[in-house]
């Protein structure tokens, strides 16, 4: 078989070439650190909402299947809890465990899944994306506050109020440029109306700009990621994220009787590298910040190989129609 003509290779190549372009631009200082925040705001506040709302504005509730999402979170939450138990219950271990289960579904996953599995695959992924941050980040917030309260008590201080923290986390996850346009797009779709072309066309153009710019931005961020001195622990976290989680998600989905495209999309979503939101927790709680950054960089770099392997295995075990 000519691997260069395989649909998996055809889908992955543009994704990692664009990340490579961003990495080169970051190394050569064509895009400097001061510009990264503005580019991130453009991607997250303008381009992503346009893409997500337009995609979901044509999806009826009866087209959605939540069983794959349930299978995904059974595996992800299970691995999160086991990872914390293995390392010990403290803020450091919660952040490291979260890094081992939180996928970069938006910046990398959306473009990759649409290239590889078309619109049907993207709808399956966006159903997962709509609750991914809400569930994992809220759970992570609660666990971190519990761990922080435990550490504060041991130090003789006054712990924060847990319920207020949990409600703040839920509110922040809902009023967010990712779940909000997905949910509003779904609600619009239930009206049976169609977007007027004068609105649909600009949304289409903005959504088209998301993929290339988001991937280039991943590369720029990767170029500025320090990894010195953290290779060993970071490799373990990256292995958990890139290899162990997709294996567990695949087994969980198999147990639920899920087959076809939903199974493949869930496993590929689990195999995506570590998402950037994990670093926000490391920064907020002032723990393992350099290790988290290094893990994200190594996980993204390894994904060139691990994602290829996972997608190839899924194409052999669970053949689906892949669109280029």
UniProtKB/TrEMBL annotation:
<feature type="transmembrane region" description="Helical">
    <location>
        <begin position="38"/>
        <end position="57"/>
    </location>
</feature>
<feature type="transmembrane region" description="Helical">
    <location>
        <begin position="173"/>
        <end position="193"/>
    </location>
</feature>
<dbReference type="Pfam" id="PF03547">
    <property type="entry name" value="Mem_trans"/>
</dbReference>
<feature type="transmembrane region" description="Helical">
    <location>
        <begin position="263"/>
        <end position="282"/>
    </location>
</feature>
<feature type="transmembrane region" description="Helical">
    <location>
        <begin position="6"/>
        <end position="26"/>
    </location>
</feature>
<keyword id="KW-0813">Transport</keyword>
<feature type="transmembrane region" description="Helical">
    <location>
        <begin position="93"/>
        <end position="117"/>
    </location>
</feature>
<feature type="transmembrane region" description="Helical">
    <location>
        <begin position="294"/>
        <end position="317"/>
    </location>
</feature>
<protein>
    <submittedName>
        <fullName>AEC family transporter</fullName>
    </submittedName>
</protein>
<keyword id="KW-0472">Membrane</keyword>
<feature type="transmembrane region" description="Helical">
    <location>
        <begin position="235"/>
        <end position="257"/>
    </location>
</feature>
<keyword id="KW-1133">Transmembrane helix</keyword>
<keyword id="KW-0812">Transmembrane</keyword>
<keyword id="KW-1003">Cell membrane</keyword>
<feature type="transmembrane region" description="Helical">
    <location>
        <begin position="205"/>
        <end position="223"/>
    </location>
</feature>
<dbReference type="InterPro" id="IPR004776">
    <property type="entry name" value="Mem_transp_PIN-like"/>
</dbReference>
<feature type="transmembrane region" description="Helical">
    <location>
        <begin position="69"/>
        <end position="86"/>
    </location>
</feature>
<feature type="transmembrane region" description="Helical">
    <location>
        <begin position="123"/>
        <end position="144"/>
    </location>
</feature>
